[in-house]
Amino acid sequence: MTIQHHPDITTLMAFSAGTLEGPYATVIATHLAMSPGGRETLRHIDTIGGALLSAEPRAEISVGALDRLMGALGDERIVVTPPDERGTDSVPLPLQQYLPGGLDAVRWQWTGPGVATADLDWGDDGKSRLMLLRVGAGRRVPEHGHGGHELTLILQGAYKDRFGVFARGDIADHDEDVEHQPIAEPGEDCICLVAVDAKLTFRGRLMRTLQPLFGM
Ligand code: ZN
Asked: CA 79, CA 66: separation in Å to the nearest integer?
């Protein structure tokens, strides 16, 4: 198993620059804890960002560093993750402060058929949320668009949508242009760490009725 789905480069650049809001930064940090390839990519970005910020008049950044970054992004070697780094039941370090009892101690709230959520208290600013989403094995999340940036990290199980199969360690990095309908793979509930910055928009009458229940 290797991590197949990575954050957008613009998201990693914002993380590197320290401009991502708390929930998004937590999702990225947790992903990076599970992804040596992601950490390698971030090192390249940090190097370029540091050079750009430096006052060195002739900082050698442009062609060479950008080539290395783009080469790294397209280099399959850096996305290979040893199976033991992905683990199966551990809570990655950046998430442990929010889940002191692990996933087993989470108090889930029913939010729709086959779907439960749990808000994580990160010091809410009213604009963005950090939460866990649990989709029962084989169940589907209502088709929805996004009122803003949605960053999803799979912690357990897997889901499939029109972008492919997302398993532990994978990131789905969606903006407001994306509509999709994730379906949890059979065998195990799919648990995701999600950062959202606006209300999701569900399609269809049933889902509009359910939307207030989802509290999104
Ligand atoms: Zn979505």
From this structure: 18
CA 141 – ligand 1 centroid, Å: 9
Domains annotated on the chain, with CATH: 1-216 (2.60.120.10)
How many angstroms does the Cα of residue 186 sit away from the middle of ligand 1? 19
Name the residue among 73, 75, 5 with its Cα closest to residue 34. Answer: 5
- H-run or E-run covering 112: strand 109-112
Give residue-wise pLDDT tens across range 74-109.
443 333 344 444 444 578 989 999 998 899 999 999
62 CA to centre of ligand 1 in angstroms: 36
Q: Provide the mean pLDDT of the chain.
A: 80
Mapped onto helix, strand or coil, the DSSP state of residue 200 is strand
Distance 197 CA to ligand 1 centre (A): 12
Orientation of helix 62-73 relative to helix 36-53, angle to 10°: 160
Distance between first and last Cα of the chain: 32
Q: What are the pLDDT digits (tens) for 136-170? A: 999 998 888 777 889 999 999 999 999 999 999 99
